[in-house]
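Translate sequence into structure tokens.
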Amino acid sequence: MLKKLAVLIFSCLFLVSCTGLKERKVDIGLEEDNDIQLVQSESVQLEENSMIQDIVINKQFIFLNDSANNIVQILDKTDYKVIKTLSAQNLNENLWIPSSLYVSEDTLYILDNKQKQIILYNLKDDTYDKIQLNNLDSVMLNTFMSLTVIDEKMYVSLSANNNEANCIYEVATSGQLKKIVNNFIGYVTSIDNSLVATNAYFHSQDKDGIHITTGDSKMIFINEKNQVTSYQLNDKIAPFKLYKLGDFMITSSLGTASIIKYDINNRTSKVIYSMNYTSVENAYIGMLAVDVDNSVYLIDNSNHTLMKLVYHDEKHLYEY
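Result follows.
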């Protein structure tokens, strides 16, 4: 696990913990027996030297953030061919480190860790605008983990060597950052037009310094008053972004190399897809994304593969 954690931290992937104005905690258990509900429908080979840090989709395209090569690829959803590659040169930068993506029907939002900015790329005419993120301590090591947009409001999560900066922020169009959830290093996304987040890691400190450690996994819902409802998950899960699939929530899990389905009402969860590896240490599961037809796109960074998964029985969309 240490080897895999080091590789993914180096490629700027993840992480953990949470507090808000008001917090309610509920435990969600993980069932011991797997219930494999998702099956592979299609598979596409990616570049051998790729490390896909994020995937988002809209009606026409699949967008992949390749952190190993510092590029964003745009794939046609019908034949998976790469129709455009965005690099630093495309966006008039000497260097960039794209870390997270969000897409609407006509705009691709790219969170750039090198320049500390959000790039708004117009998919219709290939023009772009940039929002410089402000009020950051230049001495502090800052890594932006994720980005989402709700009603044109942008939200980012930040991991830093200063624990007070590990937060979820609302981003103004001027680039000013406003803290809305403290003590957080993880992933943000939106479900039903609401802000949700997943905790996977936390900072621990010993005589050798500060380390990022697995554990304290949570599912977090933030309302319009920035009040937090926190669901405690099994610590071995280490979840990525959370998505809605049918009547339930799903996430890909680094810790178990699987996709996990959550029944929040009944406070339980189960594994519905598992990567076929002899050891979870060798299974570099990546992000997933859910399409409007409930297809699931999953990244396998071990085999450099993009997979399309579907339910073998659609009743599982509505029955736990």
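Note: Residues 2-317 form a domain with the Methylamine Dehydrogenase; Chain H fold (CATH 2.130.10.10).
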